[in-house]
Design a protein that fits this description.
Helix content is 46%, strand content 29%. The protein has 122 residues and is of the alpha+beta class. Strands 2-1-5-4-3 form a five-stranded antiparallel beta sheet, sandwiched between helices.
């Protein structure tokens, strides 16, 4: 039987294969610890998880203080692409690294499909 980390990585691999514009995917804990990832070797996974936790903390505060609602998703756009953080249940976050050529509607459709799958594994 595959470990929990292997099961999560399998889901992330399928996501990357179905959507080539996603060049990196990771699941991190709310504390910023890496749970599982499928990223290119030149990407520092620990840096991704740490920065994601920092961004998540700020996003949660903004959402709670200004919107009076729990945070579901954070979206960052740069000249080279996008970073999307999406909650996965109560204890984890899915981090996607996406090229600038991506059709975001398709990415969000994939997110709606993949998040419930990850919730079951986590």
């Amino acid at each position: 039987m595959a470990t929990k980390t292997q099961q999560i990585e399998d889901v992330l691999r399928r996501l990357r294969m179905s959507t080539p514009e996603i060049f990196g995917a990771a699941v991190v804990s709310l504390d910023g610890f890496l749970i599982a990832s499928v990223t290119p070797s030149q990407i520092d996974e620990e840096l991704v998880s740490g920065m994601s936790a920092a961004l998540l903390g700020v996003g949660e505060r903004i959402s709670n203080e200004m919107m009076k609602a729990p945070l579901n998703q954070i979206f960052v756009k740069s000249a080279k692409g996008y970073v999307i953080l999406n909650s996965v249940g109560e204890e984890a976050v899915l981090v996607l690294l996406i090229t600038s050529e991506a059709k975001l509607g398709l990415i969000f459709l994939e997110l709606r499909r993949i998040v419930p799958e990850l919730v079951k594994v986590i």
